[in-house]
Amino acid sequence: MVLITLTILWIAILLFLVLYLGHTPKGRGWRRILWHSNKVRIAAATLVLAVAAIVAIFALHPTTPDEIVEARPIFENYSRTIVQELEKQGALTIDSLCNIDAPKPELAYALPAILSVYNEIVNKPTTPRLAELGETLTIYFDGYKQFKNRSINIVKGIQKKLGPRYVPQMTLGEMSHALKIEYNGKPWDNEQLCSLPAMNASIREKVDPALLMSIIRHISDFDFNYEDENHNKGLMALDSGKNLEQIYIGAKLLKAAVDTSGSIEDAVAALYPIRESQGLNTEWRKSPLKSSWVKEVLDDIQFYRNNGLK
């Protein structure tokens, strides 16, 4: 980009000189003198060839700007897999009219907790039917003439488990009862939305989810568009895996590091993302940057444990 700018600048200067030298008798005299100079001819020819070379390079190898990854569609897609997995497990059915193309993650993430409350309160629960999952969540409980106090208990249980940002309402019918839930809080950020994938990846690989989340925080700060100095991109700045895949790859790498390291500190140091001039085999405790990074990761583990990642 700098080269192109300089080239354009010199072309502009050259054009100005040509126009200036051609409009005055004195200028025309200087032009004749310069034109008979071999140095000037060589310089002009070199400039023309340089411009032609630059044009050819960009024509044969056009550069395209890096694609910006939008986080929200990624989590909407992940939310859809949550619903599909619940249906696969038989925990719910999806109504034929229910559109789950763009589910609201804040509601989809709450589905397992909502179903858990329902199954705890109802003695003989029927399979819930998901009717809506967009800006609102609607679930039908079919086959009940009366819910009696169970509807009140379900609403209270959901409020207790999910908090005041979730507003549940139960509508009673003759043979079906509808639970409608709205989320009135602020949209979750990437850090909050990464917690469930991190938990699932940690369960799969048998590693500490709080540690995994802390590592992601100190690598990319949960930015899908993060790029390190080695040009590795993503949540964990890996050379493989896209978007949420890097969480699962990172959990596997963490598991391998924990199994082969002498301590949790050594395991964390093995995932340090920056290639230092000393080399990868340098004892990490001798590196101020790496040792400080390891300490910061370990210090933040308790924060995530306090927020339910255990």
Description:
There is one protein chain. With 310 residues, the protein is α+β, with helices and mostly antiparallel strands. It is built from 13 helices and five strands. The protein has a five-stranded mixed beta sheet with strand order 1-2-3-5-4. A hairpin with a 3-residue loop joins strand 4 (166-172) and strand 5 (176-183). Helix 4 crosses helix 8 (190-205), helix 8 crosses helix 9 (209-220) and helix 8 (190-205) packs across helix 10 (245-260). It starts with a helix and ends with a helix. The mean pLDDT is 85.
Shape: flat
- Low-confidence regions: none
By helix and strand content, what is the structural category? alpha+beta
Strand order of the largest sheet: 1-2-3-5-4
How do you describe this structure in short?
With 310 residues, this protein is an alpha+beta fold.
Topology of this structure?
Layout: H1 2-21, H2 25-35, H3 38-60, H4 71-88, E1 93-94, H5 105-108, H6 111-121, E2 129-133, E3 136-142, H7 150-162, E4 166-172, E5 176-183, H8 190-205, H9 209-220, H10 245-260, H11 264-269, H12 288-299, H13 301-306
Key structural traits:
flat, 13 helices, 5-stranded mixed sheet, 310 residues, alpha+beta, 5 strands
